[in-house]
Amino acid sequence: MKVILLQNVPKLGQKGEIKDVSEGYARNFLMSRKLVKFATPAEVKSLQQQKKKKQEKDETIQKEAKDRLVKIAGAKISIKEPANEKGHLFAQVHLKEIADAISSQLGEEISEDWINLTNPIKEVGEFDIDLEAYKKKVQVKLFIEGK
Fold this sequence. Notes:
35% of the residues lie in helices and 32% in strands. By secondary structure, it is α+β, with helices and mostly antiparallel strands.
């Protein structure tokens, strides 16, 4: 019996997949827990249309993300934070502050997940920040200045 998975099922498959299972397993276990529905031709066609729409949406999101990265490649961003006379910051600069600075200074919204930074920045200075999204990598210069 062919069924469409409505949720991820361990040892069977992922949500949205069409699987062939025994009739008893489908009716007694999977259907009773609302993990699957019958794979009628109309349901299969609907599932294929949903997958196609999702793929088109994902491609659009990827293209927009790559375009944003191209626009900000090589840009210079500055952040002013309170620091002592030795150049040590009183508060660390985290991914959120960097993303907010890029957004406010360059006008391009980016996700914190795109920023490759192993440790928060703790000192005044110039830093090369790597940004990566959908296998596209760019670099921006970040200037941390003390107040």
